[in-house]
Design goal:
Elements (H helix, E strand, L loop, with lengths): L1 H99 L5
């Protein structure tokens, strides 16, 4: 009778071992699926951030071009102001000299 029970216990032990292995496999598969899902989300986040960075760089490049153009326009305006101030000062000096001359008799 002891011999008849041993195969049944071995069979039960084997079935339990198979069941535990299947449970572990199922849990590992669910973890794999979750990891794959998280990888896809992370990849999409990366691609979105990369695209945002490209757009920001493009915008920054455009802003730099506008800054350079404004800087050139400012330099030109300052140079023109300096020229016109000089011309005004010369003209004002001419008026001052005219007032300083004695009247013609």
């Amino acid at each position: 009778m002891a011999q008849a029970q041993a195969p049944v216990e071995d069979l039960r032990s084997r079935e339990q071992s198979i069941q535990r292995s299947q449970q572990k496999t199922g849990a590992a598969y669910r973890e794999l699926q979750q990891a794959q899902y998280e990888t896809k989300l992370a990849e999409q986040d990366y691609l979105n951030a990369q695209e945002a960075q490209r757009a920001a760089q493009k915008h920054a490049d455009e802003m730099k071009r506008q800054l350079d153009a404004a800087s050139k326009a400012l330099a030109a305006a300052k140079a023109r102001e300096a020229r016109t101030r000089k011309a005004y000062d010369e003209a004002l000096g001419g008026v001052d000299k005219a007032f300083q001359k004695p009247p013609a008799k």
